[in-house]
Specification:
Number of domains: 2
Radius of gyration: 19 Å
Distance between the termini: 43 Å
Number of helices: 2
Largest sheet: 7 strands, mixed
Length: about 210
């Protein structure tokens, strides 16, 4: 019965999304359903449903001016691996011992994640990283230390091995000192994550970016 309800929700959402996309893309000469439904293997209907919701939001939102399925907040805990079903969700960095967040592989899908630190100065760093040795980050993060604002740009040397692929908020010099720090990330192209954020630091500020993968 539970699987039947999930399948019914999946079918209903699929129909609704198809209608919305058709209405906004047909006048532009686009496909009435330009979705890639599954980007990674799923093991049950719940995973498939969440995967589809993220893809719908990522592809329909630019057409209708916002997500058609309201985003929700999830807690990263000590470790979490995100997928397309988490697109447009707010990921809360609240673990006292720090969180390790692994992004999905970047394909240009348009998925977006919003990270917000909700507790001050964890005892271990919050880390956001790519899942492989080929993905990297572009963009910048600003950190505030007292009245001084310092900006850091992700390293892009042209060599994958030295491109930035990890963000570390150490709760001191590289950010994550206080609650309210935030980072937005978007899958903008194959192997490419766009980054923008503002955080707080103490001591001598240092870049939160590194090539650790």
């Amino acid at each position: 019965m539970k699987k039947f309800r999930l399948f019914s929700m999946l079918a209903a959402t699929l129909f609704m999304a198809g209608s919305a996309i058709a209405a906004y893309t047909q006048p532009l000469g686009g496909s009435i359903f330009p979705l890639t439904m599954v980007t990674q293997p799923v093991t049950n209907l719940s995973d498939a449903y969440n995967e589809m919701l993220g893809l719908i939001n990522a592809q329909v939102a630019p057409l209708v001016g916002g997500a058609i399925i309201p985003p929700t907040a999830i807690t990263a805990g000590s470790a979490i691996t995100l997928n397309a079903g988490n697109s447009s969700q707010t990921v809360l960095l609240s673990a006292a011992g720090g969180s390790t967040v692994t992004l999905p592989a970047a394909t240009g899908s348009g998925v977006v994640y919003h990270f917000i630190q909700t507790a001050a100065a964890p005892s271990a760093p919050h880390v956001i990283k790519v899942p492989n040795s080929t993905d990297f980050m572009i963009g910048n993060i600003e950190t505030v230390d007292s009245a001084v604002v310092t900006g850091y740009i992700a390293a892009n040397s042209g060599t994958v091995a030295t491109n930035s692929d990890t963000i570390t908020l150490s709760a001191t010099t590289t950010g994550g000192l206080s609650a309210g720090s935030w980072i937005d990330m978007q899958d903008v192209a194959a192997n490419t994550w766009s980054v923008h954020g503002i955080t707080s630091s103490s001591g001598t500020a240092a870049t939160p970016f590194s090539a650790a993968q």
